[in-house]
């Protein structure tokens, strides 16, 4: 089961009955038609539980029993599509939810009264996500929440609604409409808090913590490997210079304080600076060892100029 479906099914278990949630569901998945009795309203979804939820909302608020049908999609996914059809009180429902425009179509934006009330706004966001929301699985490596809208003004209203709750929401045009989206993990968690998907929050946060721990470990490993590579490179340069000195003036030609460091380095090419310091008969700090190795390298460079 995808993370998106888990979130939607958790939201359905809340058994909330709020008109602003129904308003979002109708706005984003509804279409108007004409029947013998006047206007008809159809809402489509690929989730049977969401179709049942819409049915229950209509009964709760308007005492109208809808008809639920389904058919199989003809594309490769072959998902079932469920249609909730309403043939009674459609004009009353649209008027009550402030969804009807002047031509008795469905308004494309969000009713300002919803934007003014926090509880109504949360319920609207819940309905919008149920209708056309998706969240990338947090294990996928990229955080993304999207809600698709047919109309750009509705997508922008959704972004404004999220921004009211301090979420960094943006919109982008796609081939099939306009998408309102969140990309930061913290914003997605806050969205889940707003719509009250508590189990999803726990799962998302636990995955986020594990991913961050893995990333921190990888960064530490990469830094360690880089340090090792730098140490090996410096070590090989010094060893080559010591060999050059041995082949020309001999190690005995070095000042006494450099000879022991040179012997330890060439006999132990894998030693770190600290290990070289620990191996010397006369105690020396890491900076002291480095200073002497630099002197050895300088002497070797001077030999090239002779």
UniProtKB/TrEMBL annotation:
Residues 218-300 form the Sporulation regulator WhiA C-terminal domain. Pfam families: HTH_WhiA (PF02650), LAGLIDADG_WhiA (PF14527), WhiA_N (PF10298). SUPFAM superfamilies: Homing endonucleases. One of its GO terms (biological process) is regulation of sporulation. One of its GO terms (molecular function) is DNA binding. InterPro entries: Homing_endonucl (IPR027434), Sporu_reg_WhiA_N_dom (IPR018478), Sporulation_regulator_WhiA (IPR003802), Sporulation_regulator_WhiA_C (IPR023054), WhiA_LAGLIDADG_dom (IPR039518). Residues 122-214 form the WhiA LAGLIDADG-like domain. Residues 18-99 form the Sporulation transcription regulator WhiA N-terminal domain. Keywords: Cell cycle, Cell division, DNA-binding. NCBIfam families: DNA_bind_WhiA. Involved in cell division and chromosome segregation. Belongs to the WhiA family. This is Probable cell division protein WhiA. It comes from Streptococcus australis ATCC 700641.
């Amino acid at each position: 089961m995808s993370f998106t479906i888990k979130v939607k099914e958790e939201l359905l278990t809340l058994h909330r009955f709020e008109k602003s949630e129904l308003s979002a569901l109708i706005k984003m998945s509804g279409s108007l038609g004409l029947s013998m009795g006047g206007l008809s309203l159809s809402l489509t979804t690929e989730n049977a539980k969401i179709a049942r939820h819409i049915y229950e909302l209509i009964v709760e608020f308007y005492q109208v029993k809808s008809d639920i049908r389904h058919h199989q999609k003809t594309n490769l996914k072959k998902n079932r599509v469920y249609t909730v059809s309403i043939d009674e009180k459609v004009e009353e429902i649209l008027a009550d939810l402030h969804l009807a425009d002047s031509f008795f179509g469905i308004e494309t934006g969000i009713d300002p009264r919803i934007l003014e009330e926090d509880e109504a706004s949360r319920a609207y966001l819940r309905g919008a996500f149920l209708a056309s929301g998706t969240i990338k699985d947090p294990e996928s490596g990229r955080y993304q929440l999207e809600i698709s809208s047919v109309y750009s003004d509705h997508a922008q209203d959704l972004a404004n609604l999220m921004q009211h709750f301090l979420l960094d929401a943006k919109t982008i045009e796609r081939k099939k409409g306009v998408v309102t989206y969140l990309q930061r993990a913290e914003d997605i968690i806050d969205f889940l808090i707003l719509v009250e998907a508590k189990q999803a929050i726990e799962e998302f946060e636990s995955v986020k913590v594990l991913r961050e721990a893995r990333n921190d470990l990888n960064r530490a490993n990469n830094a360690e490997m880089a340090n090792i590579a730098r140490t090996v490179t410096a070590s090989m340069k010094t060893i080559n210079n010591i060999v050059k000195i041995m082949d020309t003036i001999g190690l005995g030609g070095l000042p006494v304080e450099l000879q022991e460091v040179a012997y330890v380095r060439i006999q132990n090419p894998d030693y770190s600076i600290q290990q070289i310091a620990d191996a010397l008969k006369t105690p020396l700090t890491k900076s002291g060892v480095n200073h002497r190795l630099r002197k050895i390298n300088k002497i070797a460079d001077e030999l090239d100029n002779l």
